[in-house]
Design goal:
Elements (H helix, E strand, L loop, with lengths): L6 H9 L11 H5 L10 H9 L3 H8 L3 H4 L5 H5 L6 H14 L8 H17 L4 H12 L9 H6 L13 H10 L4
Helix pairs in contact: 8-9
Amino acid sequence: MATNHQISTRIKAATGVDIAMCYQCGKCTAGCVLAGDMDYPSSMIMRMLQTNDEENYRKIISSEAIWLCQNCENCIGRCPKEVDIPKVMDYLRADSVKNKCVSPKAKPILSFYQSFLGAVKTSGRLSEVFMTIGFKLRTLRLWQDINLVPSMLAKGKLKFIPESIKGKRNLKNIFKSTNNK
């Protein structure tokens, strides 16, 4: 994990985002539809990162806020300095997983993300069935929404055999290059 004076340096090296550019105007938080649900809104996260304090950093990567961010980019659009907060949030999420400090409230979000990527890795396209199975197994929500399956099958909404793409080797290389092996 980052150490005191290295937090902002590591973020900039990994993302190209200079968090020192944020001057705390609060427009990012004002434009975020999920700010009210976050334990730390985006402007507070930026300020906590700017302190280069290890305890603050640990709070951030253990927070639910970094997982609630939808990367909608409203914050960038509103930011007078165009600070790329979604890119920082991606970095923080990866560091949260790496350091095994994902917020317990955010574990279903992480499970969904992992299930989604797993389904795409299989065939190169999203398979709702494989994604759902992966999510259900990761969260143990095995029977949730089971009553919807017959209707979805009858309407042709669920396909048990996903379509596949050509060039799966290229897909594997993409996942390998992004450390999503």
